[in-house]
Amino acid sequence: MSTTSRKPGTGPSTHPITLEVNGARKQLDVAPWTTLLDLLRETLDLTGTKKGCDHGQCGACTVLVNGKRINSCLTLAVMKDGAQVTTIEGLASGEALHPLQQAFIEHDAFQCGYCTPGQICSAVGLLSEGKAKSLDDVRELMSGNICRCGAYPNILAAIDQARRQANEGTEP
Ligand code: FES
Ligand code: FES
After folding, report:
1. 2Fe-2S ferredoxin-type domain location, by residue (predicted)?
2. Rounded to 10 degrees, what is the CA torsion of 142, 148, 149, 153?
3. Ligand nearest to the CA of 62
4. 99-169 architecture in CATH?
């Protein structure tokens, strides 16, 4: 970034942090203004997570931090020292896709695919929150994730299928 208020000659101001990213421990020196999104994409080369608005309004940058979904564009990396971060690259288990990834394929739930990593990470967080009891709940709880292609019907169908599969045997 070119706009710093650092005094000349004081050297770069970075902070050491440790993150566990997709199961791998990373020791990093980050400038205090570095967002988690930029750290993931530009330092760690995990470009599956997308930058849409960069202002917390589209959900393209959604990742899981300690299992909870967050907008990584609004999160400073230094604030997450010691955290576990999961991105779209960390969801599959070897060759086996995550059930939500599989459901997105089965429901043809993407067009350009730009929103898809954020949609899937957000849906993983949604399912672990356990609040969605219906398709309407899924729609409401996914409302922070914008799809400019308008693939919502298939996205919601995919997430709802994964929700019902996850709840099989626990729902009346
Ligand atoms: S890029 Fe983070 S919410 Fe849009
Ligand atoms: S599939 Fe294109 S933005 Fe959602």
Report:
1. 15-91
2. 20
3. 1
4. Orthogonal Bundle (1.10)
